[in-house]
Write a structure and sequence with these properties.
The complex is a heterodimer of chains A (about 250) and B (about 300). By secondary structure, chain A is α/β, with parallel strands linked by helices. Chain A is built from 10 helices and 10 strands. In chain A, strand 9 and strand 10 form a beta hairpin. Chain B has about 300 residues and is an all-alpha fold. Chain B is about 75% helix and about 0% strand. Chain B contains 14 helices and 2 strands, in the order H-H-H-H-H-H-E-E-H-H-H-H-H-H-H-H. In chain B, strands 1-2 form a two-stranded antiparallel ribbon. Chain B is globular and about 50 Å long. The chains are: A alpha/beta (about 250), B mainly alpha (about 300). The interface between A and B is medium-sized, with 38 and 25 residues.
Chain lengths: ~250, ~300
């Protein structure tokens, strides 16, 4: 049984077919890359899967359960996490509080959290994540005051704090310097091995995708143009023409 | 140690202040306590949870009228106080629902409309609220062996209640709830994707804030001993919002400082007679331009300049 199954996902905005019948699946512990030109419907596909927008038609299953149109809150409770294309941290909270906030709602009941210790018992896990992402020196600073690259790392670390079973990462390398990109690739590989979750990664950095994802999907104009091993997709003439160029 | 002292010294100074004040001064200090209670609630809704409310005076009114009406019927204050808080909590939950659909100025107008509704109700439903004639002769409760009729004992009673309420708020803010409120304020879309129940926390932010105002309203009724609709008008809600913003929205001591300024500044400017409102208005304009983060942001501003 596939972990995530997307069947014929369609999202129309009037006459615009942002996502036009996309089907794909993700296995347990698998990392799948999604590439394609700007406006090819990658983020709309993510938003349709993750309940941010309601798909026009189609069917999605996670671990055999129908999740079509399910709210982001319910999906998060089922172990589905995400990062966004743009920075999405809690700017006034410290980095450490951002990480605790990312996981505290999965602990106990709402009423119980009022009586829980301030760190909700997550202080140690947050410190380990800070250590892993090499952000100890800025752990107590407001997240909004940190550099773009550091906020990008926090954003990703937050998605992994609740130990999700599936994470959809939307352009994790956008605006990140080459050294940090390599660090990010190592971190994601490490998290994939330690937490055992499945990832779907939208990314334009081909080198990053080739080295991280054993399977790649290329989308063009809302449709899947090619799917397969990175080297197969990279040498596909249709992909070269529509996206990668010569 | 320094931090403890900076907390204890003002607490002691305020406690000693009535010894050197006449009745009116003590009344103003007690009024400050009442507005601090309400302001702390509004700070939770607006400052910590990032919602908007121009209807907080309505809850002050609901609390005051609940206390006055029930006490006139012979119920004890100790029974009436939690009832006023609970009623405001429930109405606050209901007012939170528009916040789930609209934000910012739309929400501001929704809460403003609610305030107008409550104001018109207490002004027009004379059979229940006394209308514009109000409810006179509200008796203060007594403590075993101690009467609260005098201005000084009543101040200490209100002061201790304010400290107790502040401790409750401190607990809420330090708990994981406080972090969830901040997440809701800073980025609700991200918060929801991380399991934060936006609906529950938005409603709670309004309900808890309203309950604080309801408690403040009950103390207000005891303080003035005669209530009428005017103190619960939309202008009072704006003044409360001003207290929170001038002090420092989302900062624990913001409403304390803001309430002191909004209550005391008109008193200090009294010698200016009709000009006082002009000066008061200009002072607020100047403050908002130079210190949009409120008075409590002054240390941050200096730290920023030095670095």
């Amino acid at each position: 049984m596939n972990f995530l199954e997307v069947k014929n996902c369609v999202k129309h905005y009037g006459a615009i077919r942002a996502v036009d019948g996309v089907s794909f699946s993700v296995g347990r512990g698998e990392i799948v890359g999604v590439i394609g030109p700007n406006g090819s419907g990658k983020t709309t596909l993510f938003n349709s899967i993750l309940g941010q927008i309601r798909p026009t038609s189609g069917h999605m299953e996670f671990c055999g359960e129908d999740i079509t149109g399910m709210s982001p809150l319910k999906l998060s409770r089922r172990g589905v996490g995400r990062t966004f294309q743009t920075l999405q941290v809690f700017g006034k909270l410290s980095l450490r509080d951002n990480l605790i906030a990312a996981a505290q709602e999965f602990r106990g009941t709402l009423a119980g959290r009022l009586l829980a210790p301030p760190d909700a018992g997550l202080g140690r896990q947050a410190d380990e994540m800070i250590e892993l992402f090499r952000l100890k020196h800025v752990a107590h600073l407001p997240a909004g005051s940190l550099s773009y690259g550091q906020q990008k790392l926090i954003d990703i670390a937050m998605a992994f704090m609740p130990r999700p079973r599936l994470v959809l990462l939307d352009e994790p390398c956008a605006g990140v310097n080459p050294a940090l990109v390599e660090q990010l690739r190592e971190l994601l590989t490490q998290l994939n091995q330690s937490q055992g979750g499945s990832f779907v990664v939208i990314e334009h950095n081909m080198d990053f995708v080739m080295r991280l994802c054993p399977r790649v999907i290329c989308m063009v104009e809302g449709k899947v143009l090619a799917e397969g091993r990175p080297d197969q997709v990279q040498s596909n003439p249709a992909v070269l023409e529509a996206y990668l160029g010569n | 140690m320094k931090r403890h002292l900076s907390l204890i010294l003002p607490l002691v100074a305020i406690a000693l202040a009535p010894l050197g004040l006449k009745n009116y001064g003590t009344y103003l200090l007690t009024l400050w306590c009442v507005y601090v209670m309400a302001g702390m609630g509004l700070n939770l809704t607006v400052g910590y949870a990032g919602q908007m409310s121009i209807g907080h005076a309505a809850f002050l009114g609901i609390g005051a009228y609940t206390a006055a009406i029930l006490m006139k019927l012979g119920l004890a204050f100790w029974f009436v106080l939690p009832l006023a808080a609970l009623l405001c909590f429930a109405v606050g939950l209901a007012l939170g629902f528009p916040a789930l659909r609209v934000q910012h100025h739309y929400l501001a107008f929704a809460t403003l409309g609610f305030n107008v509704l409550v104001y018109l109700f207490i002004r027009n439903e004379e059979w229940l609220t006394g209308g514009t004639f109000g409810i006179p002769g509200i008796q203060r409760p007594g403590l075993p062996g101690l009467s609260l009729e005098g201005s000084r004992p009543f101040f200490y009673f209100t002061y201790l209640s304010t400290i107790l309420l502040a401790l409750i708020l401190w607990w809420v803010i330090r708990s994981p709830w406080g972090r969830a409120f901040a997440a809701l304020r800073d980025n609700p879309i991200r918060a929801e994707s991380l399991g934060v129940n936006i609906m529950a926390y938005t409603l709670l932010a309004f309900a808890i804030g309203a309950a604080f105002a309801g408690i403040a309203g009950a103390y207000f009724a005891l303080l003035v001993q005669f209530i009428e609709p005017a103190p619960f008008h939309v202008t009072a809600s704006l003044m409360m919002l001003l207290m929170v913003i001038v002090g420092g929205s989302g900062k624990f001591f913001g409403p304390m400082l803001g309430a002191a300024l909004v209550i005391l500044l008109p008193e200090w400017l009294r010698f200016m007679k009709d000009w006082y409102l002009v000066i008061f208005g200009l002072a607020v304009v100047a403050l908002m331009i130079w210190l949009p983060g409120g008075l409590l942001s002054i240390p941050e501003k200096f730290r920023f300049k030095r670095t």
